[in-house]
Every structure is written in structure tokens, then in C-alpha cells.
Amino acid sequence: MSKLRVAVIGAKGRIGSEAVKAVEAAEDMELVAALGRGDQLETLVEAGAQVAVELTNPDAVMGNLEFCVRNGIHGVVGTTGWSDERLAQLRSWLDASPRTGVLIAPNFSIGAVLTMQFAQQAARFFESVEVVELHHPNKADAPSGTAARTAQLIADAREKAGCAPAPDATATALDGARGADVAGVPVHSVRLRGLLAHQEVLLGGEGETLTIRHDSLHHSSFMPGILLGARRVVTTPGLTMGLENFLDLA
Ligand SMILES: NC(=O)C1=CN([C@@H]2O[C@H](COP(=O)(O)OP(=O)(O)OC[C@H]3O[C@@H](n4cnc5c(N)ncnc54)[C@H](OP(=O)(O)O)[C@@H]3O)[C@@H](O)[C@H]2O)C=CC1
Ligand SMILES: O=C(O)C1=N[C@H](C(=O)O)C[C@H](O)C1
């Protein structure tokens, strides 16, 4: 069987350099391009890439995806910074290239995907819920894409269940003391040397609390998800939001 022809964009970065090694080590894949800043996207076409793994930054991701989708190259995207406007723009490119698929995965690690699922499941049973994400200090964005997605999933689940807003009688607060408001859920961002990527979802009810915590201790935690995404996206046209769609979580 012919190997899946995979390229990595952002190949010299923290996660991109791990992705290059993971694709090289995968028996069913061939690494056909590894692009860093300043490299020409046309290389992807010349190399015959079927899938581009996009791991750059929010400033670069849209231009890279526009090129890929217009050229029928499927995308596996870990880069953060997604807004409704950006998603609408991506969908319009995909509409014009109906056989092309893009997976956006706020987090590729199985533990983080499960954290999001568990948080969504638990959200309606507790009066209070807050998210704390903790990352290395070189991270460009806050809150993390994972925390933003987690908060949105929690908010959707609570709205569907008709939950009241979480109680909070704070009368005065320093700016930022209660975190960022993501769809009504407070999200707190910690940046600390020594950390990689961690998240806690804190849920509180009468006389009890539940904490769901996930820790990525090495970038290797993201690799099985990236490889699964590359294998599955080629037969999944359109936009797929979240790796959970490619996992059998029933
Ligand atoms: N979904 C997930 O599971 C994960 C997602 N991420 C996300 O992935 C992204 C990258 O993270 P991280 O590796 O830590 O960041 P880094 O800054 O270490 O890596 C990004 C790399 O992309 C390069 N780059 C920037 N612009 C371009 C471009 N136009 N073309 C090619 N390369 C470019 C950068 O070059 P230069 O250094 O010159 O700027 C850098 O080498 C972030 O958005 C992060 O949040 C990270 C881990 C897991
Ligand atoms: O920048 C990182 O490191 C990470 N980014 C992603 C995010 O913003 O959620 C995924 C993971 O948290 C690591």
C-alpha cells in the first residue's frame, strides 16, 4: 500500500519538531516536506503532499490553510487562536474545495480530549465551574485553545440543561482577578517555567467539589493524535472540530 504523503508546517517549533520525528517514524507515512518560517508553501504542491500538519502560530495559520485548501491538501491543525470569524472563513474555502478535509484539534492528547468530555458531562450537575490552565512561559496565547474550547463546551452543556449562572457575589475585584470570561465560564491562565501543558476543571456543589486534571508532560503526548488525524482527515471532507470525532468514545 502506498504511504500517506505528509508535510509539517512549523517544523522547527516545539511541537512541529516532534511531529516531524513522529511522521518519519510512522510506517504508513512519508514525510515529504518540513517547512519553517520563510519557506515557500509551493513546496507542498511540488512534493505532492496529501496532508499538511499545521503547527505555527495564530498569525500564520490562516494563510497556510488558505493555500492548502485551495490546492486540495488536507489539513491537521493544532495551531490555536480560532474565532467564529476565522472558522467561517475556513468553511468558505472548504466549500469551494468540497473534497478537502481540515481537522482543527484544540488538543491532540487523549487525556485532554477526555478532560473536555468529562467536563462537558459533569457541568450540569454542579452550581459552580471554573477552568485553570497552566503552561510554559513561551506560549504565545492566553487562554489556551484547549481551555477556551473546554469553557465553551461547559457553557453549551449548562445552557442546554437550563443551569443558572454560577454564583459569584464579588463586589470589587482587581482587573483579571476573576480570570477571563469565556462564554460565562471564568478561565485562569498560569505561565510558569518548568510546566508544559496542564489544565484543571474545578466544579463545586453543596458540600463537595470535583476536580478534573490533565497534565501533558512531554510533546510526545500529542503525537498519536496528530498521526490519527492525518490518517482520518483524508477521508473526512469539510471541517472537523476536535479529535474526539476521530475517536471511538461511545
Ligand atoms: N493542539 C495541540 O495539541 C497543540 C497545539 N499547540 C499549538 O501549536 C502552535 C505552535 O506551538 P509551539 O510549537 O509551542 O510554538 P513554537 O513557537 O515553538 O513553534 C512555531 C513554529 O512555527 C514557525 N512559524 C511561524 N510562522 C510560520 C510560517 N508562516 N510558516 C512556517 N513556520 C512558521 C515558527 O518560526 P519562528 O520561531 O521563526 O517564529 C516556529 O518555529 C501554538 O498555537 C500552540 O498553542 C502546541 C502544542 C499542542
Ligand atoms: O502552546 C502549547 O504548548 C499548547 N497549546 C495548545 C492550547 O493552546 O490548548 C494545546 C496544549 O495546551 C499545548
UniProtKB/TrEMBL annotation:
| Intracellular or extracellular location(s) | Cytoplasm
Q: Which residues form the active site?
A: 135, 139
Any Pfam family matching the protein? DapB_C
Which InterPro entries has this protein been placed in?
Answer: DapB_C, DapB_N, DapB_N_CS, DHDPR_bac, NAD(P)-bd_dom_sf
Q: List the EC numbers from the record.
A: 1.17.1.8
UniProt keyword annotations, A-Z: Amino-acid biosynthesis, Cytoplasm, Diaminopimelate biosynthesis, Lysine biosynthesis, NAD, NADP, Oxidoreductase
SUPFAM superfamilies recorded: Glyceraldehyde-3-phosphate dehydrogenase-like, C-terminal domain, NAD(P)-binding Rossmann-fold domains
Q: What residues does NAD(+) bind to?
A: 10-15, 78-80, 105-108
Location of the Dihydrodipicolinate reductase N-terminal domain: 5-108
Pathway listed: Amino-acid biosynthesis; L-lysine biosynthesis via DAP pathway; (S)-tetrahydrodipicolinate from L-aspartate: step 4/4
Q: Where does (S)-2,3,4,5-tetrahydrodipicolinate bind?
A: 136, 145-146
HAMAP family xref list = DapB (MF_00102)
> What is the stated purpose of this protein?
Catalyzes the conversion of 4-hydroxy-tetrahydrodipicolinate (HTPA) to tetrahydrodipicolinate.
- Name listed for the protein in its UniProt record: 4-hydroxy-tetrahydrodipicolinate reductase
Gene designation per UniProt:
dapB
